[in-house]
Design brief:
Blueprint (H helix, E strand, L loop, with lengths): L5 H7 L9 E9 L5 E5 L5 E2 L23 E4 L10 E3 L8 E6 L15 E2 L2 E2 H6 L7 E9 L16 E15 L4 E6 L35 E5 L8 E3 L15 E4 L8 E7 L4 E4 L12 E5 L6 H6 L22
Parallel strand pairs: 2-4
Antiparallel strand pairs: 1-2, 1-9, 3-4, 5-6, 6-11, 7-8, 9-10, 10-11, 12-17, 13-16, 14-15, 14-17, 15-16
Length: 329
């Protein structure tokens, strides 16, 4: 049985004729970086003045993910012809929820381009850059006994209550030029992970700058300005060798201004002074004066980890004997 507030229970059990039931969906995205996105299919803001009728624990199982004053804003999702689709399966197969999101290309009122953003990055661009990877998602349904009318209370309309209808993590993001199609898998999908989690191998199994590596990316990041000779495939700038690995090879270059602002690429070659070649080209040419940040890379070897003075956190097993095959007579 799905829990709900007593007021909502009374509304759902209405016996005085046709049920006066008006409903809208709420989407709460908790990104891995800590940011929270709250959207609704309603044409108006829906607000929770108190947390009592929302009572939704955080993904860690403690505290409340929904807090007093949280509000869900109208957003272009569930458009006609592409309604959200839920798949529920028996057994241990993962259930899924699919949703189409069509961010606006222009604000009809202000004229601003790409007004729908995640942080300061246009929505589709942020989705392409991985902002939604493994985001925790709650899909809920808010119920009203009558359609809210304007003027709405400060902060938005307050429903009778809500019911959680799906919960999980973003598993797949398919993109077109104008829309994103998200597949949200429930937590049973975690059971499909291959075990054991870690493999014994010579190279480090940690991701550079993650919680197991413990290094801080900010300490090994340089900033600069693109010089003449830069292109979509190659950046020319005056750079000193970074601390730690001593090279930007395998590092990440992120443009912070210009047409490519917000896009990142891996560095596959660096001449040690001024030129960094990129694994994939940027979508637009790099112009003189465009600013960027460039973070040192790591080849996962023990020698590089020693250069970073981080050998105590090295995640490899370099002394495992190589596989041998014995041939009998």
């Amino acid at each position: 049985m799905i829990p709900c507030s007593s007021a909502l229970e009374a509304l759902l059990n209405w016996t005085g004729g046709q049920t006066p039931l008006i409903q809208f969906d709420l989407y709460t995205f908790s990104l891995s970086g800590g940011q929270q996105l709250t959207y609704t299919t309603a044409p108006f803001v829906i607000e929770a003045p108190t947390s009592t009728i929302w009572d939704m624990p955080s993904w860690t199982g403690s505290g409340s993910l929904w807090h007093s004053g949280i509000a869900w804003t109208p957003f272009p999702l569930d458009d006609e012809g592409a309604k959200a689709l839920g798949h529920w399966k028996a057994g241990l197969d993962s259930d899924s929820w699919q949703i189409k999101i069509s961010p606006r290309a222009i604000d009809a009122v202000t004229g601003a381009t790409f007004p729908d953003t995640i942080g300061s990055v246009p929505w589709l661009q942020a989705a392409r850059l991985g902002y939604l990877d493994y985001a925790d998602v709650i899909v809920s349904r808010a119920y009203f006994s009558t359609m809210p009318i304007y003027p709405l209370p400060n902060g938005g309309a307050v429903p009778v209550g809500t019911i959680c209808i799906f919960r999980g993590q973003v598993g797949q993001v398919d993109l077109t030029r104008t829309a994103a199609f998200l597949t949200i898998n429930d937590y049973k999908s975690i059971l499909s992970q291959q075990m054991p989690r870690n493999l014994y191998q010579g190279s480090c199994r940690h991701k550079l700058y993650d919680a197991r590596c413990t290094l801080s990316a900010a300490s090994y990041t340089a900033t600069g300005t693109a010089l003449s000779g830069s292109s979509a495939n190659e950046l020319v700038a005056t750079l000193s060798a970074p601390a730690g690995s001593g090279t930007f090879l395998l590092g990440i270059l992120t443009m912070t201004s210009g047409a490519n602002s917000g896009f990142s690429r891996m560095v596959t070659a660096w001449d040690g002074a001024s030129t960094a070649a990129l694994r994939n080209p940027f979508p637009f040419p790099i112009a003189v004066g465009d600013t960027f940040s460039l973070t040192a890379g790591c080849d996962k070897s023990m020698a590089t980890c020693t250069a970073f003075a981080n050998l105590v956190n090295f995640g490899g097993n370099p002394y495992i004997p190589v596989p041998e095959v014995t041939l009998g007579a």
